[in-house]
Structures are given as C-alpha cells and as structure tokens.
User: What shape does this take?
Amino acid sequence: MTPVIASHALEVTNLKKAFGGLVVTQDISLTIRPGERRLIIGPNGAGKTTLFHQISGDLRPSSGQIKLFGTDVTHFSPYKRAHFGLSRTYQIITLFSGDTLEHNVTLGLLGLRPARWQMWRPLSYYGNLATEARRTLDTVGLLHLADHPVSDIAYGEKRRVELAMALVQKPRVLLLDEPLAGLSNTERSQIKSLIASIPRETTVIMIEHDMDTALDLAETVTLLNYGRVIVDGDRDVVIADERTREVYLGV
Amino acid sequence: MKWIAAAPLAAMLVLLPSFAGDYYVNLASQILIAAIFALSLNLLVGFGGMTSLGHASYLGVAAYISALLTSRYGFGHGLAAIISIAGTTAMAAFFGIIALRATGLGFLMITLALSQVLWGLAYRMSGVTNGDNGIAGLTRPMPFGISLDSAASFYWFALISASFGYLMMAIFVSSSFGSSLKGVRDQPRRMAALGFNPWMIRWITFVYAGFWGGISGLLYVYYNKYIHPTSLSTTSSAEALLGVIAGGSGTLGGPVVGAALVLLLKNYASAYLERWNMLLGMVFLFIVLVVPTGIVPGLNKLAAALRRGSR
Amino acid sequence: MQFWIIQGLNSLSLGGLLFLLSSGFSLIFGLMRLANLTHGAFFMLGTYFGAIALRNYDGLNIWVTALGAGIAVAAIGGLFERLVLTRLKSNPLGQVLVTLGMAFIISDACLLLWGGDSIPVPTPRNLQAPTRVFGFVFPTYRLVLVGCAIAAAIVLYFLLERTRLGAMIRAGVDDGQMARAIGIPVSNLFTIVFCLGAGIAGAGGVLGGPILSAYPGLDADMLPLALIVVILGGIGSLLGAFIGSFIIGFIYTFGTALFPELAYIILFLPMIFVIAFRPQGLFGRAGA
Assistant: This one.
C-alpha cells in the first residue's frame, strides 16, 4: 500500500475535461513538490490553459481529482481555493481598468482578509493595505504609476500588475498562465527576474508555449500534447527526450 | 469644495416649505421617496451590475403589509413598520436566492417574473388586497406624537428619512464591501480567484437593496394614504430603472436626478401633454445618445472639460 | 369535449402567434445580444396597422396587409437600429433605456393616433365559415394561423440553414468576433436581422388582429410572453422558439380558462424553474 504523501503542494490525478464530444484534457496526473518550479509546455491547443482552469476551479473536471497540500479541492469553488493558498494570473488581462494600480493590488490583499466584509468603513481606512500594495508595486518596479488608472499604462506594465496582484497574496501555489506572452525583450527579462526572485515558500507552476524563454526558470518540465502528458520530469531530461523534439518539430 | 456647494442646497431643501406652496412641497416629498427607491435599485444596477426589472416588488409589498396591518388588523404604525420591513427583507432574501441562479438577461427575467407573480396576486386576491380598488383611507404615522398630515411636516419627515437613507447607502457603496461589490461587477472571475465570494457579495447587496426598497415603500404608502397594485407593476419597476440609467447608474447622484426627472416629467408633462409617455421615451433616447453614461456622469465630464479649458 | 377542443385550438393559434412574435426576438438576441424590449410594440404596431387598414378598406386582403405592415414595421425598426442602436454597442444599460423608450414612444403614438378604445379586427370573409372535421366545428381562421406559423418556421429554417445570409447569421450568433475577423459584415447583418425580426413581429401583429384586437397595452401583454418563450426555448434557437411558443400557448390558454385567479403564477412559475435549473432553455446553448 503506497503511503499517502501529504507533502505534495499540488497533486492532480487522472484529470479529464470534455466539452460534449470534444475531449480537451485526459489522464493528466501530476505531482508537484513544495517550492518546485514547474514549467508546463506544449503546442497551442494542447490543453495547458484548460488544465490551469481546472486547477484553479474556473472549470469543473469531467473526472479526476485535484489535491492541494493533501486536501481534495476538486469540488471547491475558485474563491475557496484562493483561501487555500492558490493564486493565478490569466492569459488575458483581467485587471480593473478604471481603477488605479494601487487599488488593483489592494483588492488582491483584501480578498483574503475579513475586512472585505466591512460594510461601513471605506477601504482607505485600512492604511496598512495601501502600504503593502505600494511596497509590492515597488517590487515590480511600478511604484511611480501607483496612482494611475490601469487603462493608462502599457501592456507590459499591466502584466507586471497582474503578477503583483498574485504575489501580494503570498500564495503557497502560484499558477502563471503565459506570463511572458506579448512582451518585448526588456520586458521579458524584467518579468523573468521577478519570477526568479519569488521566495521558495511559493510553488510556481508556469505555462509557456515559447519553450526557449521560460526554460531557465524551470526545474522540472511537463510536456502536454493533445490533452495528455507526454513527458514529465527534470528539465534537462525532458529537453533531451526525443518525444519533445517530435512534438515541437511536428513529426 | 463640494461642501461649499452643498450647504446652500441643504439650506434650500430644509427651508423649502417656507417659500414654496403646498403643491411644490408635496412634489418635493414625492421626489424624495422616488429618490430612495431609485438609490436602492441602483445598489443592484449600478454598483452590483445586476439589472432588475422587478424592484417595485419591495416597495409594493412593504406598502401593502403596512396598509393591511394598520387598517384591517388595528396594528400601531411602529409595529406595522417593523413587521413590514422585516417581511420585505425576508422576501428579498428568498427572491435573491432564486434570482441569483442567473445573470444578465436570465436575472432580469426572474426579477420580472417574480414581480409579475406578486402583481397578479395583489390584483386577484381581492379578499386580502381589495384588488383593483386598492386600499384607501390609510393614515400617516405620528412619530413622537407629531402629526405628519400637513405637507410641510410630511416633507421634513421624508427629508430626514431620505437623507438618512442616502447616507447609509453612500457609506455602503464607499465601504470596503462596496469595493468588493464593484470588483465583482467589473471582473467576477478575477475577484473569485482573489478570494472574494461573488454569490454572497451579490446576495447581501440584493437583500440590502430590498430593505431600502421596502423603506421607500413605507414612505410611499404614508404619503399617498392609499395603495394599489399598480405600485407593484412592471411599469413602476421600469420607470425606476429608466430613471436610474438616465440619471447615471454607478453614481450616487445619478439615481436622484433620474428619479426627479421622471417624476417631474410625469407631473408637468401630463398637465400639458396627454401623451407624456412619448415625451419620456424621447427624452430617454436623447439622453442616451448625448450622454450615454447618464446625466450626472455627463455633467461631471462637462465640468472637468470646462476646468481643463479654463486653465 | 367541445371545451377541450376549442381550448386546444385556441392554444395552437396563440402558439402560432407567439412564434411570429418571438422568433424575431430570439434571432435579435442571438445575433446582437440585445434584449429588444421594443418587440411587443412592433407587434402592436402591426396590429394597429392591420386594424385600421382592414376596417377602412373593405376588400383588402389580410395577407397583403400583413406583408405591407411587416415591411413598414421593418423599415421603422431599421431606422431605429441604424440611428440609435448602433451607437450603443458596448452599453447594455443604454440599450435597455432606448428600447424601452422606443416602446413608450410607439405605444403612446398609437394612443395618440387611434385612441384608447379597443379596435376589433374583422376576420377575413373567406375564412369566416367554420370548418367541419370529424363532426367537430373549428373556427377556420385559427387553423389558418397555425398554418402561418408553420409556414413562417419553414421559411425561416430555409433562410437560416440553406442560404448564405443564413450562414453568416449563424456564424455571427456563434462567434461574433470571429465572424468579423473573417470578413462577415456583422453590422449590416445586425440591421438586416433587426429589420427581419421587427417585420415578422409586425406581420404577426396583423394576423393576430382578428383574435386579439388592437388595444393600448397589447405591447405590454405580448412582450413578457415573448421573453418567456425565448427563455424556455433557448436563446437563438429557432426550434426552441417554435416549441416554446406552443408550450406557452397551451399553458396560457388552459391556465386562463381553468384557473383565471392564478393565471400569472401558472405562466411565470415554470419560467422561473427553467431559468433556475436549466438556464440555457430546452434547446439553447449553455452560456448564452
């Protein structure tokens, strides 16, 4: 009898998602240890974002199980998983465009605190939230834009705000969905150094479909294609594996 | 700056009965009642992103409960008011659970359907509600023994109630919870990912909106001393919704301006024009084409542009 | 027995009328994501046009009148769409305001032009004689209405499934952004579909005249029924609108006949259940 390992940060077992007749992910099983840096790669349509949506709770799997730190969260709604230490960024920008950067990041802080139910004190009463939000904005190099509305800033800067919002929650597991997409080279190295400096208390799982850029951030790699796991393991092993070449060179 | 402008306005409001005749004072009372109703609806529409076409249910039910308890069962006004508001809020809690199964058009439809069911009941159950005749001969309460029968005294009562309501709702939307609500309105998925519970936030807002809708219903039945199924009708809900949108949803001043607009058009236009609904429709079309986000946001933009231009 | 037959036929004819009313609404919502709250008024406008035309011009054919009214209402709808609705693409609350506002304008205009009394519409003379089938007597016109609905359904089906225009409409309903990206002139399509929907409603109004009469408030009576049909049948589904129309026709007719006190509850409760437990309706797409 295999011992139950409660020390896995994320454990996905036989995850399947089908929309009617179309099966997008199947038989996906992953185990990710705390503090690990996992990169999930695969061509477009391989099911990477669908996998993320199931882990974060935005989509309910057709079958299979998801465990965070040993707790079965398969039927938890997304907000409950956030309270369990899960944070994510999205492929499309889902920021509050009419609000300032500071307000956006403050909301990230508010979501996990009882203050979010406070019905007579304004948000400004909680000065410590604003301070911490600004500190995080400083970490991502955006403090000078803190009072600007999100609609005013550039795409690369919006991506950094997304990251700030996720980091400010001090998550135990962080899902980054194509954090480098659509960025210039300078912007990419900025974000990469930010990701590299995330503390080990946070387990980082990243989707990128451009393999080269993200590889140096990864310790382990999972390759998906047609909704299935093709190769899974340490980075260098996966890169050397000939199945990886097949998928990317399209045999 | 804003307080300097507000002071003379406040003074004018308080002193209105001393320089205006009863007709205008009564009109002002009606505007205050409509304003509370519109503000409560705007909690849902503007701040919550939930467009409801059945809000008159709360006004009507509160009014009917108070009317029945005082006229038929001999309850005092104080107790009748408490039971009425408690009942209306409970109904909002229940309706909210049903309505929030859907969003967008589905939500609109459920709120419409629920209010139509209530209207149908009010109309048909003549044994209880007196049907199409409505319930007449009602009295106004006498808080602290003060009579509210004169236009001026009722006006001040309405002004105090409306100011209190405005203040409470303003605090609500500016609060930390209000920020959560606005976040859920704008990006519900993102908010859920951040740890907010969108359903609960919407439901609480729905109940609070029903509560204030009920308060406006009490004011309504005290003012009119009469209640009729029309007050529950979809037309009533639609007029309030249109007022909110035209005035500017998502602001606090917008619903007040919109409610005043609809009421004034109703009162004045119907004196000169037989077909004032048509005028109302054309005014709405005009507003949406010229200031798509509503009158108050439009005026704000104009003021900002003028300020920029004068530098 | 005669009672059940009569009510059954009334249900079918009401269902037919509801289909003429709600098919347009469903198409407009499916393609334009617009809940056209003017739709009841378009129907009523048709009824009034029909009433005035048929009462004042004795020999006028009801089919010609329906066609004419349909074209007139379609034109009015088209102007409204081009001049007003196109400016409100990303403003759903604004759309509510203008469609309701337009409904107010149309309904008051009818009151202004034709007064507050109900105007009965004569049944076409050649359809006045009752039909005898299996020893039962049926009002012929009601049977004909059912036929009209079926004919309209067939024509719409062919339009949507077998023509290029229909293919473009279906593409727009499925994925508006993608349709634009591949060069489909979506905004022209919007105008065409809006005109089509309004026109069918207007024509349906004429045909409904002999049964409903033209009266102020007809628009407010018909609009909720259209909404219920579309919710029940599913947004953007022609089949759903067809079946939903007849289901509602039956519920409304038998409900009003058997339990007049509870008419509203009988009508709205099923709808509440559908929205609460199967929001996509019987045939619609989930997430519509």
Remarks:
- The radius of gyration of chain A is 19 Å.
- The domain at 1-85+171-251 of chain A is CATH 3.40.50.300 (Rossmann fold).
- The mean pLDDT of chain A is 88.
- The CA atoms of residues 37 and 204 of chain A lie 5 Å apart.
